Amino acid sequence: MYSAKSKTLSINGKTMDYVTFGKGKKSLVIIPGLGDGLQTVKGMAMPFSITYRILAERYKIYVFSRINELRQNYTTRDMAADVAEAMETLNLDAAYVMGISQGGMIAQWLAANFPEKVEKLVLAVTTAKLNNLGRERISCWLNLSQSGIYKDLMIDIARHSYTTKSFGEFKYLYRIMGIFGHIKDKQRIDIQAVSCLKHDSLAFLEKINCPTLIIGAEKDDVLGVDGSLGLQQHIKGSQLLILPGCGHALYEQNNDFQKRVLVFLES
User: Fold this and answer.
1) Residue 97: which H helix or E strand, with range?
2) What is the pTM of this model?
3) How far apart are CA 72 and CA 23, in angstroms?
């Protein structure tokens, strides 16, 4: 579907998994969230093309994982430099960029430090600096991953990412994933979680000059809506949209989310 392909890029001694799909000529780069610490996008081209099918009708989409050779103290800013390097290698001169959750933290640095790469920016369910709620959630996930309790980690992520109604629908699936799954690379999730805890781009947001849409979720039980409000205050000319009745995983569940992104990108 949508010519979906999984690939691995080699850049200066580093490797990065990415997927491509979509019918359009214009490029849209998507930077996923902390789930990338549990599993890279390798082999996920088809699921991504189905999840983002509304956007795939209009754009050639690239979804980049973090590099496979993450090291201790690797920051969200370092991750943005990797995305810029990947775009350079693939001859993506300028693209629309959408960052989700931790991906939004990375996208902030990409737009601030590599402005020539970002034509329009969408920051979804993300923040310039964690509030107490976000710190509590991510510290909890870090502790669960370090304990190696995959089932509890998956259930806790799901419980706080989805609304109560949706979590009820997904609960048994997550239990099964927890029973049969395991943390493939504990260091990978740990490094990414720590990078979220240390993320602080507040002083650099004024450098973001491209058209920017900030999307928050009314019932976000991972970061709350404070982060979205703060981003709008610091990024000049940005638009703010808070989607009602949605949890942190709004991008997976809300068709309206993709339609609103499309309206912004096409405007």
Assistant:
1) strand 95-100
2) 0.93
3) 38
